[in-house]
Write a structure and sequence with these properties.
Elements (H helix, E strand, L loop, with lengths): L8 H22 L1 E7 L21 E8 L4 E10 L6 E3 L1 E7 L11 E2 L8 E3 L3 E4 L3 E5 L4 E8 L8 E2 L6 E6 L11 E3 L2 E2 L1 E8 L3 E8 L1 H4 L11 H10 L6 E8 L14 H10 L4 E7 L2 H8 L7 H7 L7 H16 L4 E5 L12 H16 L5 E3 L1 H5 E2 L2 E5 L13 H10 L7
Helix pairs in contact: 3-10, 5-8, 7-8
């Protein structure tokens, strides 16, 4: 159209409509569900050495506290019966805001529903999302989830290392109101995720890892795992949007082989790629592959460890091929993938010079191979400057494998937040 000419009326109408559609499209892109908390489900296991068998429940209420990473205006809970061999009955469930000790904040209680009903039957081997519920919550807010299980559950689909006290009632439905617990435990029972709805841009960072991400060695009931501390750092940045950090670490987990849960390669789609709003994944896994492949086992768990030794040991070549698989699968979904170096473990029960040599090869590839979108050099952060095969004494929990609160804080502080745009 020539300069100075007037646009015909019908073109003004079209232009206004297109502009309105563009605004609506941008609004739609900005709003949506974001994963704000998670715990990877695990199959039941018998008692092993100092570890108890997976619990069962019958006609009882479980009250569990989780801390969100991202905030939002609505909440929905992902329940799990993914390792159950029979349907799981939920008689009632309720969510509320809570204080740091897990006490329900009065006036925030909301009954959960499932397809409009207050009870549900979760098929064997399946998860179940609750209906969304209006419950405005800020980033880093605590919520309480109460679940009444009216029938015998059998061994639960749990996340074993919850590091957060859960309260189990005597018989009966106590989702509403207080109850005197019959017992406590620290497993995450039948819940595996919390998503929030945000009307502002929000993204999720997924952590795929083992016990070092699961927080073993940190103070219970205090959210001192390094992913918790990363969530705090991201929440403190003004003007950078909202970020969820979902910790999918499993204690004892391996990259290549099953054992403590399915291998990272097997569980990646469920635990990472399926998360709503996921945009980044941090892969920090491998020390258990090396320890179990090459370690010399002693003590009460020796026979258990020996039963897990793979036929094909975790060579650097096999491990790197496994990492490449995860990277390609994540890139296929448009995710950015950050690789963390394997931290030192000399002094741990399954340490060996052979495993250490493979660790060095893998870390060299992570640092220089160019396969990851960025490298998080946790090895350099936490190692003893005078003995690089060990974690520095103040930064480890006493077993030469897991971090202390100080160690996990150092890992979280080392992460460049500019990676999360």
């Amino acid at each position: 159209m020539a300069k100075g000419t007037r646009m015909p009326g019908r073109y003004w109408v079209i232009a206004i409509c297109l502009g309105t559609l563009a605004v609506l499209s941008r609004t739609s892109e900005a709003a949506g569900w974001t994963a704000s908390w998670g715990a990877a489900p695990l199959p039941p296991s018998p008692a092993m050495g100092p570890f108890p068998a997976t619990p069962t429940f019958s006609n009882q209420t479980i009250r569990q506290t989780v801390r969100l990473s991202a905030g939002g205006s609505r909440i929905r809970i992902r329940f799990t019966n993914e390792y159950g061999t029979r349907p799981l009955s939920i008689g009632a469930a309720r969510v509320s805001l809570a204080d740091a000790r897990g006490a329900v904040l009065p006036g925030t209680e909301r009954a959960l529903s499932f397809a409009g009903k207050t009870s549900a039957l979760i098929p064997a081997a399946a998860p179940l999302l609750s209906d969304p519920v209006d419950l405005p919550a800020r980033s880093l807010a605590y919520i309480s989830i109460s679940t009444y299980l009216p029938e015998d559950t059998g061994p639960c689909t749990c996340h074993a290392v919850g590091l957060q006290t859960a309260y189990v009632s005597d018989t009966g439905n106590f989702v509403a109101g207080e109850f005197a617990p019959r017992e406590t435990n620290s497993a995450r029972a039948f819940i595996s995720g919390v998503a929030v709805y945000s009307t502002t841009p929000a993204k999720t960072v997924a952590v795929l890892g083992d016990s070092i991400s699961d927080g073993v060695g940190s103070t219970p009931d205090s959210n001192r795992r390094w992913p918790d501390l990363l969530a705090e750092r991201l929440a403190a940045r003004p003007g950078h949007g909202t970020f969820g950090v979902v910790n999918m670490g499993i204690s004892g987990n391996r990259l290549l082989d099953d054992g403590a849960g399915q291998s990272a390669l097997a569980r990646f789609d469920r635990d990472v790629l399926s998360l709503p709003g996921v945009a980044y994944v941090i892969i920090f896994e491998g020390v258990n592959d090396l320890g179990i492949s090459f370690g010399q086992f002693q003590g009460p768990m020796a026979e258990v460890f020996r039963s897990l030794v793979p036929q094909n040991k975790a060579t650097a070549e096999a491990m790197i091929a496994g990492y490449r698989q995860l990277i390609d699968r994540a890139h296929g979904k448009g995710l950015k993938v950050f690789g963390a170096t394997i931290i030192p473990y000399e002094g741990a029960a399954y340490y060996s010079p052979e495993g250490e040599a493979v660790r060095q090869q893998i870390n060299q590839w992570i640092r220089t191979g160019g396969a990851f979108d960025a490298v998080l050099d946790f090895d350099a952060v936490i190692r003893d400057p005078l003995r690089s095969t060990q974690i520095a004494a103040p930064l480890q929990s006493g077993d030469h494998l897991h971090g202390s609160d100080l160690g996990y804080a150092a890992i979280a502080k080392s992460i460049n937040l500019a990676l999360f745009d």
